[in-house]
Amino acid sequence: MQHPNTEQRNLAGLTPSEQVALNTAGCMLLRELFGKTSSSLNVDWLAIDTTRKTAILTIARQPRDALMHATLSALPHQQREAIRLAVIALDYQKLFRCGCDTKAWHPAPTTRAIGDIERLKKERTKKMQMKHAVLAANQIVQSGPRAIGQ
Fold first, then answer.
1. Other CB atoms within 10 Å distance of the CB of residue 54
2. Residues 46, 114 contacting (CB under 8 angstroms)
3. What pLDDT digit, counting tens, does each position of 26-80 carry?
4. Which of 19, 26, 39, 88 sits 20 to 30 Å CA-CA off 54?
5. What mean pLDDT, rounded, does the chain reach?
6. Is the Cβ–Cβ distance between 37 and 52 less than 8 Å?
């Protein structure tokens, strides 16, 4: 004898509302992967100057080293939310095309492919590495000649 089931489930064992949520998440992931509706949040973050990023990350109490060139959309939700609240506290919403309010980041009217974001990240990383190398070389030159082994 079959037991009466109050919830309908499909072959995967999901309720209709669970299936809709799964389908929606899958479609959004595909759109982002193909660059059709990727967020401008990452591009805008990379475009912000270092002093403003430092201020945002300090207010958000987040580590600066890892996040200065990070892709915000890849960060865990809590870190993204801390950064969003810091952006609001500093009134820097206009730095982001998408903008944000006290509840969430807003979608941007224009999009950019993920490949462009990764290229910008690599360019900025190379630029920072070159800057550090120049500073190190400058310090070596200024310290003058040293005896071998010092």
1. 13
2. no
3. 766 666 555 543 457 777 788 888 888 888 888 888 888 878 887 777 788 888 8
4. 39
5. 77
6. no
Backbone torsions φ then ψ of 104, nearest 5 degrees:
-165, 165
Of the candidates 70, 65, 81, the one whose C-alpha atom is nearest the C-alpha of residue 45 is 70
What is the predicted pLDDT for the residue at 36?
Answer: 41
Lowest mean pLDDT of 22-31, 33-42, 78-87, 99-108, name the range.
33-42
- Map residue 100 onto helix, strand or coil: strand
CA distance 56 to 22: 34
- According to DSSP, residue 110 is labeled S
> What whole-number distance in Å separates Cα of residue 60 and Cα of residue 81?
9
Q: Is the dihedral of CA 66, 70, 73, 79 positive or negative?
A: positive
For residue 103, is it left (φ>0), alpha (ψ between -120 and 50) or beta? alpha
Contacts of 38 (CB under 8 A, 6+ apart): 31, 32, 73, 111, 112, 113, 114, 117
Minimal CA–CA distance to 111: which of 97, 129, 100? 97
DSSP 105: B
* Structure confidence at residue 28 (pLDDT): 65
